[in-house]
Amino acid sequence: MTAHYQASGNIAVITLDNPPVNGLGLSTRQGIAAAMEQANADKAITAIVITGAGKAFSGGADIREFGSPKAMAEPNLLSVIKLLEQSNKPVVAAVHSVCMGGGLELALGCHYRVAAPNCKVALPEVKLGLLPGAGGTQRLPRVIGVEAALNMIVSGDTVSSDMLAAIPGQQLFNKMAASADSLLEEAKAFATDMADVRPMPLVRDLKCKHPDGDAYFQFARNMVRGTAKNFPAPEKCLDAVQAATKRKFEDGMAFERDLFINLMWTAESRALRHVFMADRAASKIPDVPADTPKREIKQIAVIGAGTMGGGISMNFLNAGMPVVMLETKQEALDRGVATILKNYESQVKKGKLSQEVLDQRMGLLSTTLTYDDLKDADMVIEAVFEEMNVKEAVFKQLDAVMKPGAILASNTSTLDVDQIAAFTKRPQDVIGTHFFSPANVMKLLEVVRGKATAKDVLATVMALGKRIKKTSVVSGVCDGFIGNRMIEQYSRQAGFLLDEGCTPAQVDKAVEKFGFAMGPFRMGDLAGNDIGWAIRKRRAIDKPDITYSKTADLLCELGRYGQKTGAGWYDYAPGQRKAIPSTLVEDMVSEHRAKLGTPTRKIGDEEIVHRLVFSLINEAAHILEEGIASKASDIDMVYLTGYGFPLWRGGPMRYADEYGLFNVAQRMQQFAANPQDDATFWQPAPLLARLVAEGKTFTG
Ligand SMILES: NC(=O)c1ccc[n+]([C@@H]2O[C@H](COP(=O)([O-])OP(=O)(O)OC[C@H]3O[C@@H](n4cnc5c(N)ncnc54)[C@H](O)[C@@H]3O)[C@@H](O)[C@H]2O)c1
Prior knowledge:
Elements lengths: L2 E6 L2 E6 L9 H16 L5 E6 L24 H9 L5 E5 L2 E3 L1 H8 L2 E4 L4 E3 L13 H9 L1 H10 L3 E2 H5 L9 E2 L6 H12 L18 H15 L5 H14 L2 H16 L2 H16 L17 E4 L3 H12 L4 E4 L3 H20 L5 H9 L1 E4 L10 E4 L5 H14 L5 E4 L6 H5 L8 E6 L8 E6 L5 H13 L3 E6 L4 H20 L3 H11 L5 H8 L1 H14 L8 H7 L12 E2 L8 E2 L1 H14 L8 H21 L6 H11 L9 H8 L1 H12 L13 H9 L6
Parallel strand pairs: 2-3, 3-4, 4-6, 5-7, 6-9, 10-11, 10-13, 11-12, 13-14, 14-15, 16-17
Antiparallel strand pairs: 1-2, 7-8, 15-16, 18-19
The structure holds nicotinamide-adenine-dinucleotide.
């Protein structure tokens, strides 16, 4: 059992001991129940203290039990809390470090709470599309007031114990300990003082009212609806807290339970729980164990101070790591440094950064025109022009100057990392680090594992990704890696839709209604339509069988590259980013359609969305089968963090599972029958067909 009992004089100390954060898994709950029985049976014991070993009081539910019968097995958390409330000796929670979710609900079931300073307190269930289901919505408002509790429950945000202790009239913490070190002794002394006090106080007996009652809740409801559309949980949190002010405690508990169970079954909660697990799983690589030794990375070099080189450098400067940038010309270095400085200055203006931190970060940045100056760097990231001969020259020079064991990374988005590695005599040290633009903002980092990349290099880069706060996902080597390989199919479908009768605005609107941050044409205008143009030109030589709509080329021939040229699929007022539908483009599209002789048809939103999203899914199934991605959830993380896929749908693979793989495959067969589309592409990928036949899913 992962909770221990120890008698200390007349005080029983129950210690949760389930690393890393004392999650309230079955064995911990059993441990608490057994210890409570022992304490109550022992005549010498007068009071009980519950605390947590190590780094937390308790982080709440044990995520390893998510979805397993163990999570609900008796004694469940509600039963454990009941044991605390019914104890015939007072129970004191000694709260420190982390007290979240079920951990806080457990503490609220105790008669008293003593807290260490700086303890992180939260009810974060809403972030998983749920609400606190073990009395949190009924008890927290009783001890810190309705408004403060509602804010915490609806946002899921963490608040420090010191801030909570400062709320006038609060009864969450009966005492603040001087320090985490003295917490246990102070809690035991407090328990000794309270040993004979009767009746023993219970949070459930406290009053729960808001002076403005319904008016306040109506105001709060409007706020929640405005900010949480597509997410049902926040409003249900509000319903539960409102119930705490209106119903008897036990009725409120039953109401909370019903809401919790209903939320558990929503697609949104399933998606958010999937994302929570997917995020953790992304750093786990099947054949690279967590204890793989890592190389020490203290100093970074970046080659190329352009759009990506500058953004990439900022990530490391932000993490306090020195960066040296190399360019071919001083002007390019000056421009790169000026852009970085401008970026930081705008953060200072917005109050997001202090001048002092700006100075520190800029102080970590140096520049050079000479490869010799890179010899102390532990890792170099190349972000020069996307041309193989330029990459070749750079990697040959890096091979000559970098110290043994240094990691050589390329930010290439389309070139073969294995070929780049072969330019060096140390292919085991070469890896792809595919940042997304703007590199200092976007969360996603595709870590491209070459066929020779050493395991410790991969482990080191994944750990570095965490250090610079990226979501790192491993991809094998292929054209476009995970994200761009999939988006190519999506863009092809977007083009075909124009040829068949849609306008760019119609496609974008349908996709944005589905929940994407931006439709494909607005995205093209933002990223630059010339990028796809260059890729298609290359494809015409490399892979002439791939068909595309010609409209995107016609657009580029007009010089309409997007926002950077003031016009793309849309018109833009000077200096503005608002996309205005363009009659010129719409005429261009319909003239092209007439030239093709394609009958124009009215295409509904459902077809638009499914052709685009299912094209992602089918390509993803190929990617999985080829082992380019090691798990479906990695693909979801790529799309959620790099491509604006709606979070509440959990990513394309999760969405496919939710829609039903059988239904997805059937729809693909219908698309294959469309003579204007690419029948070969729409044959369900073998993996998809197999999962359908076996009645299985991508994400399990
Ligand atoms: N822009 C994006 O959205 C994006 C996204 C992901 C990856 N990438 C990749 O990142 C790389 C850089 O792209 P970018 O958009 O920053 O290009 P960019 O044109 O803005 O910058 C490239 C920089 O490299 C410098 N350079 C060229 N040859 C050099 C050499 N031999 N030695 C040193 N410096 C040299 C140039 O002077 C220029 O400043 C490319 O491989 C690109 O495919 C770009």
